Amino acid sequence: MTTDNESPLHHAEESDDGFWRNSDEEALHVSASDLERHAYCPLSWQLARKGKPGRGEAVQAGRVAHAEIHRRVEDFKNKQFDLRRALVIWSWWFTIILVIIADCIIFSVLDDEIRPPIDMAKFLTMLAVSWLGVGLLAIYFPWRQWINFPTDVEKYKSKIENMNEIVIESTLQPPGFIGGWSQGGRVEAGLLLGAITFGIHAIGLTWAENKENAAFILIIMATFWTLLASWQLQKALLADNALEIARLEAGLENNVDVAYSDDESTAGLLVDNETGLRGRPDQIVIVDGEFIPVEQKTGKIPNQPHKSHEIQLLAYISLVASTTGRAPPYGVLRYGPESIHTIQWNEKSRSRLMASTKEIQRLMVQGGAERNHNRKGKCANCSRRYACDSSLV
Ligand code: SF4
Q: What's the gap in Å between 272 CA and the centre of ligand 1?
């Protein structure tokens, strides 16, 4: 079988399932951008393969607009992280207030004869000191690395493989967190919180010899923690306000989580080795527990989504389906903040995507791409017209 000049595809042949595979049984790679260019015009796709980049003001403006969209989405993610952290800290401090109230009740019914409070206070002091010591050691030494402690990256990879940058980061431990050298995660936070709780109980019990003193101390402590919790709650409310502003600026729907945003430099590819498809959507958001790919388009806003954009989005839906094992019911095409279209994922759209993928693989091997339209307007707007000898204008 012959191959095209620009990409040596050794002995690639059509398999029984219609996909084209090389001698290593690897499906020929077709990117979502390949599908978009090919749907626009097969010659545009071929020119891109020959190394002819898109040119023109629209291409440049599109890059700038995409970078701005990514910046806004990243800002939203950061604000979301700030809010979650503020709420987690507030909930801890509020828990301490509840613990103090529980102590008040316990002290009032404490029986000095059965177990002297001072003995219990000593025991809790030892517990608090040992938890504090272990917590500080855990923060200082990278023990996760030493014992091969599983990181959150593994958990996320099981959801979306092949993606380097993901995902609703944990408030305390971002993916890949290994701790140590003055960094603590969930385990360390639990140890320190435990030490604080035991310490507070020990102080309270020391004063429980004199129940009036104990009650007084507990009221002082409850007041102090209530002030801290109120201050933290105010921080959380401010973070919530900032998040809402960032969400509106990013043009995101309410109650939407951003799992991933492509910055074109650090984000990894989604890959389907079965079909050869690959690509990375602009964003993946989580709506009602489903991963939904979003493709942002800049420039002139059409009445209906372009077929070329639809097929590109279908590729992303298929890639999310194959990497997560769960097919998104739809994907989203956005032309600016107001023009939002959902593209359904069903058997018909899947067949359309696979047929286009196979056709591109065939063209890679056999060549013969031709203009598929007679529309002068399309050629006039084509970013590769400068290199095309079949242009209509
Ligand atoms: S100029 Fe026209 S024929 Fe040539 S690649 Fe572009 S759209 Fe196709």
A: 29
